[in-house]
Amino acid sequence: MADHNELGKEAENLAADYLIKNGYKILVRNFRFKKNEVDIIAEKDNQIIVVEVKARSTDFFILPQEAVTKGKIKSIVSAANHFMEEFNKNQEVRFDIISVLPDEKRNLNIEHIENAFEAFDAN
């Protein structure tokens, strides 16, 4: 497996652990609808939290959260809408980003950005 794939998997696991420790209930990981995917769908305070996990080995060129483009947002929103319909959920939905970057000692650090974007940002 390529290094970036390993970092991505490790980042998703770290993000899930972080969410659980902070009172979130993980409903599903890597939810797919057609070609769209959501990394983590969780629940907290009667809200559905749709989480995109972005990891980079360095922030030299771009911060991880800056890699969530308008096209990616559209993809996430599409998958989230399908999840809500498929599982008959009617709670409010929040879209978060968890950014994972290594520090100078190669420890992975998490930044949780709540309400990172709105569904209408996809239009």
TrEMBL record:
GO terms for molecular function: nucleic acid binding. It holds the Pfam family UPF0102. Belongs to the UPF0102 family. HAMAP family: UPF0102. This is UPF0102 protein IX39_01750. The lineage of its organism: Bacteria, Pseudomonadati, Bacteroidota, Flavobacteriia, Flavobacteriales.
